[in-house]
Design goal:
The chain is α/β, with parallel strands linked by helices and 578 residues long. It has a 9-stranded mixed β-sheet with strand order 2-1-10-9-11-12-13-14-17, sandwiched between helices. A 4-stranded parallel β-sheet has the order 4-3-5-6, with helices on both faces. A 4-stranded antiparallel β-sheet has the order 18-19-21-22. The longest helix has 19 residues, at 517-535. The chain is globular. Residues 460-571 form the AMP-binding enzyme C-terminal domain. It comes from Amycolatopsis japonica.
């Protein structure tokens, strides 16, 4: 299912700078971006830029950048309105923006160094407060002392400069992948790719241009950038931003901001729905106005049906209805958005586990519950045998392939990987589907009764004794063993066994320091029993660790391969049960 591009809504211009100029010229005094700062004021200090103010600040930063067309400019700002200015300033100067984060983000210095080395920026944009830390970080990188540093919040007045006129097929930015199964790679995205994806998302989600976006997602993350910044820019919507840490400290802040604006919409990964339902106190919940929310997209990680039920039940009394939740699937290589569900309550289907393991989706009264992620809009999705390239019939588990104007042009300076991932071609009889090029996502899914369901990643798949097991399914079962094992804090992965692969579970436990040896043994045995009963899978090892020791990507996903590496290196010590 797909709509032709000409049937999708129009954006304000063919490039991102064109969109900004349009709104500054036609509606310059209207609020464009509001950053709610909870670090300096617990109630949230709001700082707003109108469309004209935003354009003036963007032009000032752009004119201060000593760059030529095609140079890379890395954005190393904290989450703020300054980040918006920096990102658009780099693109307006004719450079290729590289949305990243300031060096102060804990636990990600190695990734930041690797990405900066890969993209070789001519300049970096940060803030005055972070400038010294950024210079110190750059000094530790090869050639870093030659990189120009510009502070977005103290750029001078616009100087005379030859403003470039980008074309739709020019590169707008590099979106570095989160690295859940490999080292980060920069997806090359043109203005045309990005704005095509905006049109697809606006139609698929039913977004009204009169609405307001509210987001705490990091702006260096694909969903945070496109749904929290670029979509409002393209459609002339107001964007309300906050820092991810402010959400973690008090998730009610996100919901309060949503209720402040009629027709508001947002996006978040599954864990945020669980976190909000668990952490928002009753007295705070009673004050919310979630009847004003248009929609919240649930994407970026596997969607748990139980979490959705809890979120819907928790916030029903303050106006939130299930039809407001929009399950979605996407990835950076397709800009972000691929499929989404219609404006109806999320559809949950129970599939027979044994049939899924054999590659077929068959409904069952007792089995694995999966949430439908809807249909593509303005692009094609095929389920394909990853070994043969043959398109599969509905109901068969296959690799998800994507074809459309939103698919990036490749990975930055990685021609071989680009050809393998972005240049796939179908073989055999594939009907009306184009032969290629197709994007190979590496994700497993199935189209059932018209909608796409996500089963997991090919590289994460557990193949034990000839049977396929999806790690997120095993992880959910393990988490159910104890209330202090938080969903989303368990990693299941495969290691080499004697004759076949063997499965291991590493689980964070909130009260780990208080557990006795016998407590740990008993809980490990319980996890083994639950996994065996539910999946017919005998775990080789169960390891319980304190909170925070299961590694995650920069976007918060479980990094199973990294967890496996830590386990094999002995970082978790000797397991108690084998």
């Amino acid at each position: 299912m797909s709509l032709a591009p000409e049937n999708l809504p129009a954006t304000a211009g063919p490039t991102l700078p064109d969109c900004l100029r349009h709104w500054a010229d036609t509606d310059g005094d209207r609020p464009a971006v509001t950053f709610t700062d909870f670090a300096t004021d617990r109630a949230g200090r709001r700082r707003t830029l109108t469309w004209k103010q935003l354009k003036d600040r963007v032009d000032a930063v752009a004119s201060a950048l000593p760059v030529r067309t095609g140079d890379r400019v890395a954005i190393l700002c904290p989450q703020s309105a300054d980040y918006v200015v920096a990102f658009l300033g780099a693109i307006t100067a004719g450079a290729i923006a590289v949305p990243l984060f300031d060096p102060g983000l804990p636990g990600h210095a190695g990734r930041l160094a690797a990405v900066l080395t890969d993209c070789s920026p001519t300049a970096v944009i940060t803030t005055a407060a972070a400038e010294d830390a950024v210079r110190e970080f750059l000094a530790g990188l090869p050639g870093g002392e030659h990189v120009t540093v510009v502070a977005a919040d103290k750029a001078g007045p616009v100087r005379a400069w030859p403003a470039p006129a980008p074309a739709p097929d020019d590169v707008a930015y590099l979106q570095y992948t989160s690295g859940s199964t490999r080292s980060p790679a920069g997806v090359v995205l043109t203005h045309e790719n990005v704005l095509a994806n905006v049109r697809q998302a606006v139609h698929g989600l039913g977004i009204a241009p009169t609405g307001t976006t509210v987001s705490w997602l990091p702006l260096f993350h694909d969903m945070g950038l496109v749904l929290g910044l670029i979509t409002p820019l393209a459609m002339g919507m107001r964007s309300v931003l906050m820092d991810p840490l402010a959400f973690i400290e008090r998730p009610v802040r996100w919901l309060e901001l949503l209720g402040d604006h009629n027709g508001s919409w947002s996006a978040a990964p599954n864990f945020a729905f669980h976190y909000a339902a668990s952490r928002v106190r009753e007295e705070d919940r009673a004050k919310l106005r979630l009847d004003r929310v248009a929609a919240i997209v649930n994407g970026a990680e596997p969607i748990n049906p139980g979490v959705l039920d809890r979120f819907h039940e928790t916030f029903a009394e303050v106006g939130y209805t299930p039809d407001k939740t929009r399950p979605a699937y996407g990835l950076a290589e397709a800009t972000v958005f691929v499929t989404t569900g219609p404006g109806v309550p999320p559809r949950v289907t129970t599939f027979d586990r044994a049939a899924l393991g054999a590659g077929t989706a068959r409904p069952s009264d007792d089995g694995l519950k999966l949430v439908a992620c809807g249909v593509p809009v303005g692009q094609r999705v095929a389920l394909v045998d990853p070994e043969t390239g043959v398109a599969l019939k509905d109901g068969s588990i296959g690799e998800i392939w994507v074809h459309g104007p939103n698919v990036g042009t490749g990975y930055w300076q990685k021609p071989l990987e680009s050809t393998e991932t972005f240049g796939a071609r179908l073989t055999g009889d594939h009907g009306e589907l184009p032969t290629g090029p197709w994007l190979r996502t590496g994700d497993l899914g199935v189209r059932y009764d018209g909608e796409v369901y996500i089963a997991g990643r090919i590289k994460d798949l557990l193949i034990v004794d000839g049977r396929n097991h999806y790690p997120q399914d095993v992880e959910a079962t393990a988490a159910s063993a104890d209330r202090d094992i938080r969903p989303g804090s368990v990693a299941a992965f495969a290691v080499e066994g004697t004759d076949t692969e063997a499965a291991v579970v590493v689980a964070e436990h909130r009260g780990h320091s208080a557990l006795t040896t016998e407590d740990e043994r008993a809980l490990a045995v319980a996890i083994r029993r639950l996994v065996s009963d539910a999946h017919g899978l005998a775990l080789r090892d169960v390891v319980l660790v304190p909170a925070g020791l299961v590694p995650r990507t920069s976007s918060g996903k479980i990094a199973r391969s990294a967890c496996r590496d830590r386990y094999l290196a002995g970082d978790y010590g000797k397991a108690l049960v084998r």
